TrEMBL record:
Alphabetized SUPFAM superfamilies for the sequence: Acyl-CoA N-acyltransferases (Nat)
Originating species: Nocardioides kongjuensis
Alphabetical keyword list: Transferase
Protein's name according to its UniProt entry: Putative N-acetyltransferase YhbS
Lineage, uppermost ranks: Bacteria, Bacillati, Actinomycetota, Actinomycetes, Propionibacteriales
Organism domain of life: Bacteria
Pfam families on file: Acetyltransf_1 (PF00583)
InterPro entries noted in UniProt: Acyl_CoA_acyltransferase, GNAT_dom
Domain N-acetyltransferase: 1-177
Molecular functions (GO terms): acyltransferase activity, transferring groups other than amino-acyl groups
UniProt KW Cell division keyword: no
Length: 287
């Protein structure tokens, strides 16, 4: 087994392994009422590869490949943002899990962030991966997902928000530092390109939404957080989803249930050296 740094030439096959692995996991662990798992669309595959190339540019020592007999069989991508290390993605080719591949490639990525006082990762329900995260020193916090059609009659009138833009990045980074210990920095550009940025007029919070999912939300207090979430729900398409909601962010559960979204438990937020941030709904890969 060869564990080596990821290069640009590895990105396409890493994306394929990731899509295969998570599709297989989602199919095997699908709840009866959950929508059928779907493969990534061409646009999603392109976005995944662009995001990963961004990690290689900003953190060339944070992403690693597991290679067996000249074939890529697993990978992990990670990055540092000041005081916080984040695991973006981690996957092993289906059919090869349980053979120690994942442990070796994850150890290489974790070592990159060993000196960071804080660490974050979004974990699936795969019990093998959860054991690895626990052994790596991460405390696992259950996450909630809320999804469904928004009851617009339940939405309040929202004031004090506006569309954001690049000029807002500096104060949003300061808010990120307050909530998780590090800015999103270059990730803001990717998030803005993928959807709408909503900010409060008093700079107390921001949220990214594309009309189908809440990608990320950070705020100074729960009132600002709920205001942003109401605005995102008001702009929802036929169905909307907010994932990665920890119990520390019950304000989001209250608003989403009031809008008649359905609630399920799904996945975990793994944390090292920090409590679950709040008010904060993290991004699955950019955390």
């Amino acid at each position: 087994m060869l564990i080596r740094p990821m290069t640009d030439a590895d990105v396409a096959v890493a994306e394929e392994i990731s899509d295969d692995a998570f599709f297989a996991l989602d199919t095997a662990s699908r709840l009866p009422a959950a929508p059928a798992p779907e493969r990534r669309s061409p646009a999603q595959r392109t976005a995944w590869r662009a995001r990963t190339r961004g990690f290689l540019a900003s953190d060339p020592d944070g992403s690693w490949i597991a290679e067996q007999d000249g074939e890529v069989v697993g990978f992990a991508t990670s990055f540092l943002r000041e005081q916080v290390w984040c695991l973006a993605t981690f996957a092993v080719r289906p059919g090869l899990q349980g053979a120690g591949i994942g442990a070796q490639v994850l150890d290489a990525a974790v070592a990159y962030g060993a000196d960071a006082p804080r660490g974050m990762l979004a974990a699936s329900v795969d019990p093998r991966a959860l054991r690895r995260y626990h052994l790596a020193g991460f405390r696992l916090h259950p996450q909630l997902t809320l999804r469904g059609s928004v009851d617009r009659s339940a939405l309040p009138v929202v004031t004090g928000v506006r569309d954001g833009g690049p000029d807002d990045a500096a104060w949003m980074d300061d808010l990120d530092r307050l909530r998780r210990g590090g800015p999103h920095g270059p990730d803001h550009e990717r998030l803005m390109a993928a959807g709408r940025l909503v900010v409060t007029t008093d700079r107390s919070g921001y949220a990214y939404t594309n009309g189908r999912v809440l990608a990320l939300l950070a705020a100074r207090d729960e009132q600002a957080a709920q205001t942003l979430l109401w605005e995102c729900l008001a702009g929802a398409e036929e169905r909307y989803e907010l994932s990665h909601v920890t119990s520390a962010n019950y304000w989001a559960v209250e608003a989403a249930l009031a809008a008649r979204l359905d609630l399920v438990a799904r996945g975990y937020l793994g944390l090292r050296g920090m409590a679950p941030p709040s008010p904060y709904v993290h991004h699955g890969a950019l955390l």
